[in-house]
């Protein structure tokens, strides 16, 4: 059996290196359910974009939710938000907040409650 103190906890330095030590923007800047989509604009010459930035641009050619991007890239949310902020600064992506949902009909909720109580 493997000694627990030697279990690999995964990459620790990588997120720090990807963000160059910068701290992520507030979570409110990119909601978990916001839609991210590429503007199809070419990155400006001299833009300091790394391979992760370019990977994100490929992934958002069609609109994707932030949570989908986090799952597909296996990046921590803070790192992902920071990379997206970099892309947004260069007008390479747009972020659309999640659609607000209408309040459900109270009569429908009452019928659902009655059905649940009948179970």
Description:
Helices cover 42% and strands 8% of the residues. With 119 residues, it is mainly alpha-helical. The chain has one domain. Helix 2 (51-59) packs across helix 4. The longest helix is centred in the C-terminal third of the chain and has 13 residues, at 77-89.
Describe how the helices and strands are arranged.
Layout: H1 13-19, E1 35-38, H2 51-59, E2 64-65, H3 66-73, H4 77-89, E3 93-96, H5 106-118
Helical run tally: 5
Helix content: 40-55%
Mean pLDDT: 80
Indicate the proportion of strand residues.
5-15%
- Given as residue ranges, the uncertain stretches (5+ residues, pLDDT < 50) are none
Query: How much is the radius of gyration in Å?
Result: 20 Å
Pfam family, one: DUF742
Protein name: DUF742 domain-containing protein
InterPro entries: DUF742
Organism: Sphaerisporangium album
């Amino acid at each position: 059996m493997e000694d627990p103190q030697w279990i690999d906890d995964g990459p620790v330095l990588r997120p720090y290196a990807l963000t160059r030590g910068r701290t992520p923007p507030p979570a409110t800047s990119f909601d978990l359910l916001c839609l991210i989509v590429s503007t199809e604009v070419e990155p400006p010459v001299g833009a300091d974009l790394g391979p992760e930035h370019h990977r994100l641009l490929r992934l958002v050619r069609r609109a994707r939710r932030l949570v989908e991007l986090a799952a597909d890239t296996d990046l921590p949310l803070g790192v992902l938000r920071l990379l997206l902020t970099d892309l947004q600064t260069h007008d390479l992506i747009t972020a659309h907040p999640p659609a607000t949902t209408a309040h459900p009909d109270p009569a429908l909720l009452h019928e659902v409650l009655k059905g649940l109580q009948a179970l």
